[in-house]
Amino acid sequence: MLEIDNLTHVYGPGSANEHRAIDGLKLSVAEGELLCIVGPSGCGKSTLLRSIAGLITPTGGEIRVDGKLVRQTPDNLAVVFQDYSRSLFPWMSVADNVALPLRRRDMDKRARREAAQEALESVGLLGAAEKYPFQLSGGMQQRVAIARALAYRPSLMLMDEPFGSVDAQTREDLEDLVLKVRGHHRMTIVLITHDIDESVYVGDRVVVLSKAPAHVVGDLRVDLPGPRDQITTREHPDFVRLRGEVGRLVRGVDVAAPA
Amino acid sequence: MTSTATLAGRGRTSPSRARLAKYLRHATGVAVFLLAWELAGRTGLISWLPSASTSLARVAQLAADPAFLADLASTLTAAAVGLPLAVLVAVPVGLLLGTVPVVEEMTRAIVEFLRPIPSVALIPLALFFFQPEINAKVALIVYAASWPILINTLYGVRDVDPVATETLRSFGFGSGAVIWRVSLPSAAPFIFTGVRLAASITLILAISVEYVVGGAGGIGAFLIQASTGIGADAMVDVIATLVWAGLVGLAVNTLLLRAERRLFRWRHA
Asked: Where is the ABC transmembrane type-1 domain (chain B) (predicted)?
């Protein structure tokens, strides 16, 4: 579904403050997979995500979505950014925010409106449709951003540290929301996080990146019994083992990474 | 101790009472000013100054004076035609300069050169190029009113949050859609402030041109006629006209300020 081959990105090549963010990164994500990418902060996770989304043109390597080389933003892709307060448009109502990207689809106004309502319902925010983003809490705003991505019905959803700016309780709710909606919508999700526990809890698979320039240092399959639960899953011996493995990889301690 | 008491006292005051107190302070200021004016006029402290009561009575009379009303209408019409034209010129140019850095850099020297030239100094030039005078008046209004709108649009567009822009781009929208759906609405509060500043400039320019041309009607022309009269009456007319100009400016500004608050509630939350 998503193929990344030998991806390299250098900021300001040739200049005094040249920064090599990604170096020879290889990664492939299967259809319907929920992949979590973890890595130390500043390791180039966001550069990777922006390259997949076609927001920046990487200096080397290839990215393919559904077999098609990414040159500009792929058609069936949606991004959920960390900073919901800046990503939502404050001058639009919640419903209009969710409906806006649907202008890219062949839908009339009514169809867009209905799709927006449906997406808002699936994140439990139907009642907030006519409100404005500033009238909602941070967690609710991020739900709106998720609803906006869902309404677009992407085949690939990218999430850039989506729960990095909310409190712990809200964070758990949103993690469960992602697990719930992926069951309803068939899509591939790539979620970037710096939270090791979160990556193991949410992911089918966790890929660990090195510090910049980023490349893959670990690739672990998460086989935890489902459905996942904030209490029991986190007590499960496999969860504890996996988070230990991921943690060591992130910190750069040598452990044998299962292929 | 004192500060605690003040805080507690403030906590108890309801918003409407606080607002009433504020208006009361404003009104007190005005009352003191009027009283000082009245005294200065009556006692002859400032010999040429007609008293506040005489002047304000004349202000009221002017409201029923057909000649004055025609002049007022003429000034307001020029301003009302010029301001939207200025918006039509300045907003697209501001968008262009704000979104294409190369164009902005190329025009910066010209902009920085033209901007400080007082628009009033361009009256002779405008009269030469635009005839009849009403056209020169509108042309100058458009020119002068364009600056604050242009500059505010430019900075407003530059200030657009890159995350908002990327969000729209990530859904596959092109740069035209980004300007229309993100840059413009996001800069709208800045642009509107520019329009509000421009509105007061339209009055300044309209009255200035009228004052220079004389025959072209408008408050400025009325001012000339009033000042060429004789004795104390002339001064009463001049002052009453100025009060009218001030009132019109105040009304326009208040109206636009209200509209601004209402339209851009999302901004201050």
From this structure: 72-256
Q: What is the CATH number of domain B54-268?
A: 1.10.3720.10
Regarding whether A147 and A134 lie in a shared domain, the answer is yes
The structural domain count of chain A equals: 2
Calculate the alpha carbon distances from A217 to A37, A107, A147, A245, B43 in Å.
11, 43, 33, 12, 92
Question: What pTM was computed for the model?
Answer: 0.82
Burial of B58 (C-beta count, 10 Å sphere; 0-12/13-18/19+)? buried
* Interface touch A86/B171, C-beta < 8 Å: no
Strands (E), chain B: none
Q: Do A229 and A112 lie in a common domain?
A: no
A132 and A29, same structural domain?
no
Same domain, residue pair A245 and A159: yes
User: Which residues is A25 bridged to in the sheet?
Assistant: A7
Domain limit, last residue, from A138, A153, A168: A153
- What local confidence, expressed as pLDDT, does residue A123 receive? 87
Every domain of chain B and the residues it spans = 13-49, 54-268
Is the distance from CB of B119 to CB of B198 less than 8 angstroms? Answer: no
Low-confidence ranges of chain B (pLDDT < 50): 1-9
Please write the tens of the pLDDT for every residue from A195-231.
899 999 999 999 998 887 888 888 989 888 878 888 8
- pLDDT confidence of residue A168: 86
Domain containing A118 equals 88-153
In chain A, residues with a C-beta closer than 8 Å to the C-beta of B168 are 100-101
Mean pLDDT of chain A: 87
Q: Which residues of B touch A (CB under 8 A)?
A: 161, 163-164, 166-173, 181-182, 185-186, 188, 264-267, 269
Give this complex's ipTM. 0.86
- Average pLDDT for residues A161-175, to the nearest whole number? 86
Instruction: Based on the fold, state whether residues A97 and A208 are members of the same structural domain.
Output: no
Q: What is the pLDDT of residue B2?
A: 43
- Which position has the higher pLDDT, A225 or A134? A134
Counting DSSP H helices and E strands in chain B, the numbers are: 13, 0
Tell me, yes or no, whether A159 and A62 share the same domain.
yes
* β-bridge partners, A207: A37, A219
pLDDT for residue A253 is more than 60: no
Residues A203 and A103 in one domain: no
Residues A167, A225: one domain?
Answer: yes
Which among A130, A153, A176 is the end of a domain?
Answer: A153
* Residue A187 domain-assigned (yes or no): yes
Q: What is the pLDDT of residue B269?
A: 53
Q: Which helix (H) or strand (E) holds A188?
A: strand A188-193
Q: Is the pLDDT of residue A181 over 90?
A: no
C-beta atoms of B182 and A89 within 8 A: yes
